[in-house]
Amino acid sequence: MEKKLRVGILGATGMVGQRFITLMENHPWFEVTAVAASPRSAGQTYEEAVNGRWKMETPLPEFAKKMVIMNINEVEKIAGLVDFVFCALNMPKDEIKEIEYAYAKAETPVVSNNSAHRWTPDVPMVVPEINDSHFDVIPFQRKRLGTTRGFIAVKPNCSIQSYAPALTAWKEFEPTQVVVTTYQAISGAGKTFKDWPEMEGNVIPFIGGEEEKSEQEPLRIWGTIENGEIVKASGVQITSQCIRVPVLNGHTAAAFVNFAKKPTKEQLIAALENFKGYPQEHKLPSAPSQFIRYMTEENRPQVREDVNFENGMGINIGRLREDSIFDWKFVGLSHNTLRGAAGGAVLCAETLVDKGYITAKE
């Protein structure tokens, strides 16, 4: 790419916004030209705004330190500085919906980490290796919004990333029933142990809204475009429990699966290891070279050992074995703020650029 695309980050001071900042450092396609947050942060430098609450394990990138935070409500002003925006806002969903619409109608594509538009029928919710074809709904959305460039695209919830890719790789064997329990890191709530000391040595068996997302969002990413809207898949039943555990980064899933067809273990492992999608085929900058790896050790995957596989963008699967009630069971692991949040959104943006949906403004 001859000239980098200009990107803005909405909600730049929160945990996911901070992750976006780190991922934009030396990105070959994108450069940050605007950072925005709530009015109370506007006017401060980025360094001032995150002082004492920088949550990343790596230092604050130099390029961001002196950038002045803008008010997210200055839509036209920000839209004039960027080619597209990432959204990492943490606000009431109705407010986020309206802000994302405002940027899209200002002819500025929005690639969102937020859940506000995940069920808007003509908004694609995409894991690029799984359902990049859902971006084909964008022309229908643009027609509804009355835009030529602007649109909204989202990535799915972090909790499904540790098992939905495996189920997708096994699509030919026709999964019919899935029982999954996710063990979710505290960074999924935007917290560190410094922020949330009561999580040390603790387990909380409830995360608001997560179980519905875990059960329904895979069906949407497996869905089809019909009459300009995405219709979720049928034929697969998923039930879940979602538990918060004392881990900083990394969502683990324990899943049980029934299949209409009866695959062997060798067939299942081969399907995992050979599975790839648009990002691998087009060699996108943030794409893991191996999307899913199977680990043969009995005690893997482990958060400490494996969460950063492929720079946190790969999926780890292990402990695949026959079950006494279901056909097969396995354990999955994904990095929730990289593959599951900001990194997944960056890969979506790269896919949208490669497909021609995001371009430089004239």
Automatic annotation (TrEMBL):
<dbReference type="InterPro" id="IPR051823">
    <property type="entry name" value="ASADH-related"/>
</dbReference>
<dbReference type="Pfam" id="PF02774">
    <property type="entry name" value="Semialdhyde_dhC"/>
</dbReference>
<dbReference type="GO" id="GO:0050661">
    <property type="term" value="F:NADP binding"/>
</dbReference>
<dbReference type="Pfam" id="PF01118">
    <property type="entry name" value="Semialdhyde_dh"/>
</dbReference>
<dbReference type="InterPro" id="IPR036291">
    <property type="entry name" value="NAD(P)-bd_dom_sf"/>
</dbReference>
<dbReference type="GO" id="GO:0004073">
    <property type="term" value="F:aspartate-semialdehyde dehydrogenase activity"/>
</dbReference>
<dbReference type="GO" id="GO:0051287">
    <property type="term" value="F:NAD binding"/>
</dbReference>
<feature type="active site" description="Acyl-thioester intermediate">
    <location>
        <position position="158"/>
    </location>
</feature>
<dbReference type="InterPro" id="IPR000534">
    <property type="entry name" value="Semialdehyde_DH_NAD-bd"/>
</dbReference>
<dbReference type="InterPro" id="IPR005676">
    <property type="entry name" value="Asp_semi-ald_DH_pep-lack"/>
</dbReference>
<dbReference type="InterPro" id="IPR012280">
    <property type="entry name" value="Semialdhyde_DH_dimer_dom"/>
</dbReference>
<comment type="similarity">
    <text>Belongs to the aspartate-semialdehyde dehydrogenase family.</text>
</comment>
<feature type="domain" description="Semialdehyde dehydrogenase NAD-binding">
    <location>
        <begin position="6"/>
        <end position="138"/>
    </location>
</feature>
<dbReference type="GO" id="GO:0009088">
    <property type="term" value="P:threonine biosynthetic process"/>
</dbReference>
<keyword id="KW-0521">NADP</keyword>
<keyword id="KW-0560">Oxidoreductase</keyword>
<feature type="active site" description="Proton acceptor">
    <location>
        <position position="251"/>
    </location>
</feature>
<dbReference type="GO" id="GO:0046983">
    <property type="term" value="F:protein dimerization activity"/>
</dbReference>
<dbReference type="GO" id="GO:0009086">
    <property type="term" value="P:methionine biosynthetic process"/>
</dbReference>
<protein>
    <submittedName>
        <fullName>Aspartate-semialdehyde dehydrogenase</fullName>
    </submittedName>
</protein>
